[in-house]
Amino acid sequence: MLNIKKYQFWFCTGSQDLYGEECLSHVAEHSQKIVEALNHSGNLPFEVVWKPTLVTNELIRGTFNEANIDENCAGVITWMHTFSPAKSWIHGLQEFRKPLLHLHTQFNREIPYDSIDMDFMNENQAAHGDREYGHIFSRLGMERKVVVGFWEDEDVQREIAAWMRTAVGVVESRHVRVMRVADNMRNVAVTEGDKVEAQIKFGWEVDAYPVNEIAEAVSAVQKGDVDALVEEYYDQYEILLEGRDEKDFREHVAVQAAIEIGFERFLEEKNYHALVTHFGDLGALKQLPGLAVQRLMEKGYGFGAEGDWKTAAMVRIMKIMTQGMKDSKGTSFMEDYTYNLVPGKEGILQSHMLEVCPSIAQGAISIKEQPLSMGGREDPARLVFTSKTGPAVAVSLIDLGDRFRLIINKVECKNVEKPMPKLPVATAFWTPQPDLKTGAQAWILAGGAHHTAFSYDLTAEQMGDWAEAMGIEAVYIDKDTTIRQFKNELRWNSMAFGK
Question: Which end of the chain is more exposed for a tag (fewer CB within 10 A), N or C?
Answer without folding.
Answer: C
